[in-house]
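user: can you give me the structure for this one chain? tokens are fine.
assistant: on it. calling the predictor now.
[tool input]
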Amino acid sequence: MVQMGAVTGKPVRCSLHIQFASETDAERVHRSVELDNEGYVESKLDGATMSALIEAESLKSLLHTLDDFLACVGVADRIVARKD
């Protein structure tokens, strides 16, 4: 879900829920990306699901942060699951 805030002057927000194969995979991926998230992404775990909230001042900034976050999660997931 993306809420547009450019017209109102309010921050733009995006909420994600990412389901992993197991709780262990979710914990490992979360640990891998958590340090880079500080100040940009708030994330938490609920079982095998990682939830993340991204907030930015503009849609462009939100999309940049979202792209970086998903790229890092993808790399971490491939490493944790030993995927190619």
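assistant: here you go. Residues 59-81 form the longest helix (23 residues). The longest strand covers residues 12-19.
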